[in-house]
Amino acid sequence: MNEESEFDRICLLCAEPRVPSGMTKQGRFFCQTCQREWILEKRKVPRVGKNVLNSVEKTEFLLENLSLFNSALGLEDLMFRFSELISDRLNRDKIAIFITNLELGEIKLANYYSKQKHLQRAIKRITLDYDLSYGILIEAMAKREPCFYKFSDQTHPFYSFYSRLTGTKSQLVLPILYADIAVGMITIDYDEEDSLDYLEDEEILKIVVGQFAVSLRNSLLFFKSKNQSKHFRSLHTAALTLSQLYLNNHNEMIRMILLTLSGIVDLSISCLIEIPPNASKAKIFKVYRDIDNYELKTQTDSIDANKVSSFLNYREITTVDPSEDSNFETIGISGKESIIVPIQLENQTICIFILAKEESRFPHEEIEALNAFVSLARITMENSSLYQNLSNKERLEKEIEIAKEIQSNLLPRKTPEAEGFSFGGLMVPARGIGGDYYDFILSPNRNELFVCIGDVSGKGVAAGLVMATVRTILHSLVRVKDSPWEILNDINNYLYTSYKEAITPRFMSMILIRWNLISGEVDVSGAGHGSFYHYHESSKSLRSIETGGVILGISPDISPFKNESKLQFGSGDTILLFTDGVTEALNAKETQFGEEKLEQSFLTNIQLEPKKILENIYLDLKEFVKEKEQHDDITMVAVRKI
Fold first, then answer.
1. In what order do the strands lie in the sheet with 436-442?
2. Binning pLDDT at 50, 70 and 90, where does residue 138 land?
3. Residue of 528, 608, 552 whose CA lies nearest to 576
4. Total domain count for the chain?
């Protein structure tokens, strides 16, 4: 046999004639040019598949999909447009998307795309049990790996039924993975048994299936809670907006804030009127969004301040009918309903957010999301003003003051009105900005109560932003999830994904308690926050409960640290939750306040109302530290069953 020359082997992926570095399993080679494993053929003339993409085409394809996935699409529209795009790119006629529901143990056909319209009509709904007896489809989902198979090799009757209906002889299956969990699968049907085109199709689909998984997950969340999926898609964008990226470009910062608002809810127009102190002119920033055609357009104008004077009368977030005020027409805003959100910056600049819907109204959930985001956006606007006008020292002091104010505004302003319970919450910020957080969240039907306490790593505005974002996520999740552990798991996914590559990663400890106010059942889950105290009125005894778990944001998978426990909460019982700023408070001798003194103070004041208990514990702590400077937030929560 003649010795092979350097140009005897051709890479089907990059079509470059190079000698591979070595043969691997199943006839695959490692191409030194494109750095991938692929099939190499001994040919004098390159044979390149019709679908193989070079690096430029891959980039264009990726951008095509990014524009699709960043759109606020409903589930059906998302799958149809994705199937259509893949069909055009791969030149394939039959593409199916299945969605898994692990809670129900089933896989449903959610979309079947074919230019043969009779097939689309014939295959409306197919449901498979999540059972390995179904064969290769379920195995691919369970193993979370792509596969190509022949229908003739499968024994389950589903495959013969599907083959007769569609003419399919073989199929490529790619699981859709979100956080390493299979949320669905994409299948490509082939009319031949031995099609080798699946290799190229698989390579191309791998470019975008991860992005599609994120969009599919978000669209599924939409059906569980109205508008929540769009809110989640915008959280990471909001985090970017509230960074220093745009502090030196004021106009770009405002446009990014308005674009992010458009992503949180379906707005036809998002607008900001900016009126500096003693100015005769107002600046108007607008983002127009064509929801049907998925188009965005930005516009910036200047107008006499007296022409928008009526908007200055609004002191709080308000929904209005644009047709009732001629000033809406003056600035080019119309629609069925608008929301006005006024804020005043530290430099006395008045900013008025005006958000409009063309044909619908704003539900309560959207108003909450918008209000929360505007609070976050204000931090960026204040920081931008400081960046432009103050010295480094003055800017830092103002930044701390602003962030502390906003941080305090994000804490509960009043305790919930839950029959049979009494509450107390106390937070004393340190001189620097911390990331302590506590909350009481009563469900809209008043059947469930969530109580939480947490501590973000580090200090400064960055920690405060993490705290504010986690608060928004938590308020969204309690509406769609019952289990405290599931909520902690989703918060961990957000923190790890958003900050794993940051210069300073962000972590957070938390205790989350859920009361079922109907049955009295209490569920507790912890995330590395330590212990809390439970006083039993019947036995006059105090118990320290260690919650366990792992700090959120450290690992992409916290399932090995899962902890769920039940709490027997009797009449007259009281619990006390606290952060390490309480027990680690130091006096002049560098001695910590410690858990022993905290327990003593708690028991001494146990007969008082929860709010008064916390106030007296804080007085005992202050007496202990005396004039020693406070270096960490002091946060406590008390709940009593009456």
1. 436-442, 448-456, 508-516, 522-527, 565-566
2. confident
3. 608
4. 4
Are 437 and 456 in contact by the 8 Å Cβ rule? The answer is yes
Structural tokens at position 591 = 């001695």
User: CA-CA distance, 259 to 276, in Å (whole number)?
Assistant: 22
- CA neighbor of 32 nearest in space, from 13, 51, 49, 46: 13
User: CB atoms < 10 A from the CB of 54, how many?
Assistant: 13
518 and 458 in one domain?
yes
Closest CA to 202 of 92, 116, 100: 92
Burial class (CB in 10 A: 0-12, 13-18, 19+), 380: buried
Q: Give the torsion sign (CA, 36, 42, 43, 44).
A: positive
Q: Which residue has the higher pLDDT, 250 or 97?
A: 97
Q: What per-residue confidence (pLDDT) applies to 538?
A: 92
pLDDT in tens, 82-117: 888 888 878 888 998 888 876 446 788 888 888 887
232 occurs within a structural domain: no
Q: Is 231 a domain residue?
A: no
Name the phi and psi angles at 55, rounded to 5: -60, -40
pLDDT at 139: 86
How many of the other CB atoms lie within 10 Å of CB of 244? 12
Asked, for residue 311, whether it belongs to a domain, the answer is: yes
Q: Are the C-beta atoms of 340 and 318 separated by less than 8 Å? A: yes
User: Which helix (H) or strand (E) segment is 29 a member of?
Assistant: strand 28-31
CA within 13 Å, CB half, 565: 16
> What percent of the chain has pLDDT above 90?
26
Q: CB neighbours of 253 closer than 8 A, spacing ≥ 6?
A: 241, 246, 247, 380, 381, 384
Residues 380 and 511 in one domain: no
Residue with tokens 């799958």: 79
Is residue 301 packed enough to be buried (19+ CB in 10 Å), middle (13-18) or exposed (0-12)?
exposed
Asked, for residue 233, whether it belongs to a domain, the answer is: no
Tell me the residue range of the domain where 298 lies.
245-388
